[in-house]
Amino acid sequence: MTILGTGAALATGDRVQTGLLVDVSGSTLLVDCGSGVLHRLAGVGRDPTEIDAVLLSHTHLDHVSDLPGLVKARWMIDQSPTQIIGPPGTPDDVGPLFEIDGQSDRVEVSSFETGAKPGDRIEIDVPGTTCESVSATPTVHSRQGVGYRFGTRFGFAGDTEASATLLAFFDGVDVLVHDCAFPSGGEPDNHPTPEALAEALESADPDIDRLYLTHLYPDAACRADEAREIVAEATDAAVHVADDTDDVVE
Ligand SMILES: [Zn+2]
Ligand SMILES: [Zn+2]
């Protein structure tokens, strides 16, 4: 699993928006595709046509804005259509992105049902792939979204406020990548502060080997070491600040 982008909606200069490349059960998935992710993919030596499906955590622009570029690149290389799957509303939300440049026929967008609340477990069938053990759970965010869990190896919490119930969903994964968008001392609002994430970790006490903090706004990115120290006080997991192109599971 490679974290391609660790930034948010406001640019930092060195963190592109959200994207993660996951090799699982013989298939390759791209989770989210924000601005800059297409370039980061090339930067780690991977080809857009290797991607069997794109999973979306939600449809905020910083998670979908490179989708048209990805679809076009795949079509230019080998005419392969792109499969995109996400929570309810995904087809309506991202469909207009492909109306530019005549791309609508080059993409297949579908959605899956989600549970009512964080912690509900939804098994995800990713059509056309050999993926197994992919599950999702609702997040706490301003748009309907999910976090994904890939067996016992890896979890991605998506955009979300800190939630003990959500963290319990990821109990037992080797690696969890979690939103830590705001700097210390702020107010949690659709995203956590380090203090809010620490409090939820202390409450849920999930068994996680390594925790990566991501989705950093510029004012959080420049205080990332402080955030890491605050979160690390609350968990036995090794806590890291994710950087673009970090390989976190090999
Ligand atoms: Zn969002
Ligand atoms: Zn976001």
Automatic annotation (TrEMBL):
Alphabetized InterPro entries for the sequence: Metallo-B-lactamas, RibonucZ/Hydroxyglut_hydro
Domain Metallo-beta-lactamase: 16-215
Coiled coil segments of this chain: none
GO molecular function: 3'-tRNA processing endoribonuclease activity
Keywords: Hydrolase
SMART domains: Lactamase_B
EC code(s) of this entry: 3.1.26.11
Presence of the UniProt keyword Disulfide bond in the record: no
Protein name: Ribonuclease Z
Organism: Halalkaliarchaeum desulfuricum
Gene from which the chain derives: rnz2
